[in-house]
Amino acid sequence: MRVLITGGAGFIGKKLAARLLERRKLLERELTHLTLFDVGHAEGVPADPSLHIATGDITRPGVLFDLLRPGYDAIFHLAAVVSGAAEADVDLGYAVNLDGTRHLLDAVRAFGGKPRLVFASSVAVFGGDMPDVIADDTHLTPQTSYGTQKAVGELLVADHHRKGFVDGRSFRLPTIVVRPGKPNRAASTWASSIFREPLAGQEAVCPVADTTAMYILSPRRVVDALVHGMELPSEALGMTRSLTLPGRTYSVAEMVAALERVAGKAVTARIRWEPDAPIRKIVAGWPQRFSTPRAEKLGFAADEDLDGIVHQHIDDELGGRFVR
Amino acid sequence: MRVLITGGAGFIGKKLAARLLERRKLLERELTHLTLFDVGHAEGVPADPSLHIATGDITRPGVLFDLLRPGYDAIFHLAAVVSGAAEADVDLGYAVNLDGTRHLLDAVRAFGGKPRLVFASSVAVFGGDMPDVIADDTHLTPQTSYGTQKAVGELLVADHHRKGFVDGRSFRLPTIVVRPGKPNRAASTWASSIFREPLAGQEAVCPVADTTAMYILSPRRVVDALVHGMELPSEALGMTRSLTLPGRTYSVAEMVAALERVAGKAVTARIRWEPDAPIRKIVAGWPQRFSTPRAEKLGFAADEDLDGIVHQHIDDELGGRFVR
Q1: Which residues does chain A have within 8 Å of residue B159's beta carbon, measured at their own beta carbons?
Q2: Distances (CA, A) of B52 to A246, B37, B118, B281, B303
Q3: Tens of pLDDT along B52-72?
Q4: Residue extents of the structural domains in chain B
């Protein structure tokens, strides 16, 4: 079983790689080869004879053709520039997020073999004039270039699936909390910062009101979903190849309360409330509540509670300890 | 007022050009320059000092940059390969229908001026697991590459509108009946043939059952809609830049009955009923019934009846006479 992860140097790519190397199996076959592809070298991944690191520019078709030529049985397509970057640099966003996906699908088609493909889409495909609760059949009206490019990717995956070039499926990821690492250019970056920085003894800035609600999923559950989504029989998804992953909606106040329950008041005192009008405006345009019966029926699951999400971050990223 | 029509050698492009030259005004400004762009030379268009014919390959970005460099105030983007061709030749369909739209929007962005843009989308963006009646907010689940490419075009137009590069709006065209000319590679080509060929004294083949229903609009009404859609104030469309044009759903039996009422039994006797399983299967997957309150509120209108559609064809294409 040969597996490719694009965006393999990103935090989800690396966590997914670690999970696959731990399982040693995918689709009931032995994992013999796992390639992590990204624009930069994947750092901090376990040394493993079946693990291969590849670097290259996804915006260049030749790079993808070279990458795909050896053939893969399963592809996780996670590579993307994040929302803030895609919004600021229109050319870069379209080149990586749209053309990159085109190149990948063109290469898959060129070399045949009909691999399975999991495309990481995003709840950013929703926006604008939305119902109060986003349902499985709500139409896609993205209000960011990133959301537009993810919506286009879903359409391309579905068309290439229908034509028999790939066994494709697209899963819309909620905002991932707690994302490890540093703040990035996503307008949602504070949703992880308010947990991550205080637990590390640093100050975090929260630019939104504590009544702001976010639809979130933890890193472990995202990796669960990607693997589960890859292993779902194709028929389970039928003609509609996209679905929104189950998450849970919490207010910022609930997030801070969970952090306080787990880590104490000294930790939450490190959150500085500093309203930022442009960020509030972007976040206010995001969908907050979802109904995902289709995904739940197919065995996808949200985190059970916020406290568990805080504990998961402390266990997985901080070696079980935090700065009190 | 400088106006560009891509796909200007196609039958809608030419009818739209004739209408604009007749009106001499668009958006309350005098029409001074009208360019018809297509891969082939537009034939049979009125000689007019303000009319310019341009040819070129829309799949090559440089061609679109050269075309757009002089600047346009209003662009009708009709250029596309039809459904049958896009399905048979995956590369051609994506190159013309997706990359062509990208190149046009890139060129618009490069040269600024924020022109108005009307994108001709299609009801082929719907398909698969659909509700019985397609509503204004039904999600797009195309089951053809053509429908996929049109859905992607809508997303691109909406994103470029939101970013302020263009004042964009996308209108989903019903099947156009009666299309003049010869049968083409569209799986719906029979819907025009069953009127057009018998009225011209020729035999037509109907590959579907007479209970088959189609959602249709006449050429005149399509041109009305494109002009009306161009002239709608931007605010009228709000955040959702796409809408389905109102049409009417008729069964093949109703179409044949109308042809008989207008032209007589000798004409309808020229329809040969010859079931074609692959075409029936494609057509069975198409949406048949639509509810379009948003477009109706904005002043778009369907044809009043089928008899009028038959008369329109006889008047506009046959000089008022048909072969009895």
Answers
A1: 142, 145, 148
A2: 55, 9, 19, 42, 31
A3: 999 999 999 999 999 999 999
A4: 2-174+218-244
| Phi-psi group of A269: left, alpha or beta (phi > 0 → left; psi -120 to 50 → alpha; rest → beta) | alpha
Please tell me the distance from the alpha carbon of residue A62 to that of residue A68, in angstroms, as a whole number. Answer: 10
Residue of B nearest to A136 (CA): B139
Tokens found for residue B18: 């004739």
Alpha-carbon distance B310 to nearest alpha carbon in chain A (angstroms): 36
> Which residue of chain A is at minimal alpha-carbon distance from B131?
A137
In sequence order, what are the beta bridge partners of B4? Answer: B35, B75
Please return the burial class of A324, using the count of CB atoms within 10 Å of its CB with bins 0-12, 13-18 and 19+.
exposed
CB contact under 8 A, A143 and B162: yes
The owner of tokens 């051609």 is: B92
Evaluate whether B309 touches B178 at the Cβ level (below 8 Å): yes
**In this structure, what token pair is assigned to residue B114?**
């924020």
Residue A187 has pLDDT above 90, yes or no: no
The reported pTM is: 0.96
Which chain A residues have any C-beta within 8 angstroms of a chain B C-beta?
A: 90, 94, 102, 109, 128-129, 137-143, 145, 148, 151-152, 155-156, 158-159, 162-163, 238-240
For residue B98, give how far its alpha carbon lies from the nearest alpha carbon of chain A (Å). Answer: 10
DSSP per residue, A244-271: EPP-EEEEHHHHHHHHHHHH-HHHHTTE
Distance of CA B158 to the CA centre of its chain: 19
Cβ within 8 Å of residue B263, ≥6 positions away: B198, B199, B310, B314, B322, B324
User: What class has domain A2-174+219-244?
Assistant: alpha beta
**Contact (CB, 8 A) for B195 and B183:** no
Catalytic residue, chosen from B72, B146, B215, B250, is: B146
What are the chain B neighbours of A151 within 8 Å (beta carbons)? 155
Using CA atoms, how far apart are residues B303 and A165, in angstroms rounded to an integer? 41
Find chain B residues with C-beta within 8 A of A238's C-beta: 129
Nearest to B140 among A90, A139, A142 (CB): A139
Q: What percent of chain B has pLDDT over 70?
A: 100
**Which of B104, B4, B115, B5 is closest to B59 using CA atoms?**
B104
Whether domain B2-174+218-244 has CATH 3.40.50.720: the reply is: yes
> Do residues A90 and A145 lie in contact, with contact meaning Cβ atoms separated by under 8 Å?
yes
Contact A159 B148 (CB under 8 A): yes
A21-47 pLDDT, tens digit per residue, is 999 999 999 999 999 999 999 888 888
